[in-house]
């Protein structure tokens, strides 16, 4: 009956999202706790839902259960967006995606005025307010707010560099680092200083440049002079200096 009445009596104590079923609330709470009770027997993959595990297992079995009624094509993504033709394995993912076209954002943050187009995006946003960091690196125990950030961090331990420049074959651990690097080939400088209109290829370079206008000197000398600086290279020089002065042993 709640499908017709719209009644949602089960409320999340963390983000105040409401649900019509107790089971849906239990499943949602795993996004906050990080609990993943459904584990793959073939690899280390874990999922918060049984459906997520079933989809993952197809990578091992090669099963493609969705067959086109017009031809013999089989695939894992039967739900297609009629606007941009992007395909999804779960109907709920397609519904969330469609909101990127309609602009609909039904999930509002109770702490600020931000609105999100999916429940998952709202959960991620709420961590900015709560400070929750449920994803932990098993190597160094550093914690993260999002699984994507943890995946990127793990590459610092493995040394894996999956993103390679097609121009000079330099490899990077992150797609974002590759994008910034590619600008050295294209000459693109999308970040502009509002004070002098000088342009930069990376946001970090722009931030450092802005300190020349603001006079900000965030890096303090650790030696007796205690003078400020806006150049991180001075930090590296001071760190290297003791080793250089000590000479060979």
Automatic annotation (TrEMBL):
PROSITE patterns cross-referenced by the UniProt entry: ZINC_FINGER_C2H2_1, ZINC_FINGER_C2H2_2
Official protein name in the record: C2H2-type domain-containing protein
Gene Ontology biological-process entries: regulation of transcription by RNA polymerase II
Keywords associated with the record: DNA-binding, Metal-binding, Nucleus, Repeat, Transcription, Transcription regulation, Zinc, Zinc-finger
Bias (Polar residues): 221-232
Localization in the cell: Nucleus
Annotated C2H2-type domain residues: 10-37, 38-65, 79-106, 107-134, 135-162, 163-190, 191-218
A GO term, aspect molecular function: zinc ion binding
Major location category of this protein: nucleus
Chain intervals for the UniProt region annotation (Disordered): 221-249
Gene Ontology cellular-component annotations: nucleus
Top-level taxonomy: Eukaryota, Metazoa, Ecdysozoa, Arthropoda, Hexapoda
């Amino acid at each position: 009956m709640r499908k017709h009445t719209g009644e949602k009596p089960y409320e999340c104590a963390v983000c105040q999202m409401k649900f019509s079923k107790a089971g849906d609330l239990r499943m949602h709470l795993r996004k906050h706790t990080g609990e993943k009770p459904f584990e793959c027997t073939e690899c280390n993959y874990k999922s918060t839902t049984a459906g997520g595990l079933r989809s993952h297992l197809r990578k091992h079995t090669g099963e493609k259960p969705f067959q086109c009624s017009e031809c013999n094509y089989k695939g894992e993504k039967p739900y297609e967006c009629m606007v941009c033709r992007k395909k999804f394995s779960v109907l709920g993912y397609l519904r969330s995606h469609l909101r990127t076209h309609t602009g609909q954002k039904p999930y509002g943050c109770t702490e600020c005025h931000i609105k999100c187009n999916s429940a998952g995006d709202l959960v991620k946003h709420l961590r900015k307010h709560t400070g929750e960091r449920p994803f932990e690196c098993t190597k160094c125990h550093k914690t993260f707010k999002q699984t994507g950030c943890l995946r990127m961090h793990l590459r610092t331990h493995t040394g894996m560099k999956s993103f390679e420049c097609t121009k000079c074959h330099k490899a990077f651990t992150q797609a974002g680092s590759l994008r910034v690097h590619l600008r050295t080939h294209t000459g693109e400088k999308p970040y502009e200083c509002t004070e002098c209109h000088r342009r930069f290829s990376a946001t970090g370079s722009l931030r450092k440049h802005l300190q020349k206008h603001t006079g900000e000197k965030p890096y303090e000398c650790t030696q007796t002079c205690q003078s400020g600086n806006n150049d991180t290279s001075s930090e590296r020089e001071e760190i290297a200096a003791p080793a250089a002065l000590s000479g060979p042993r």
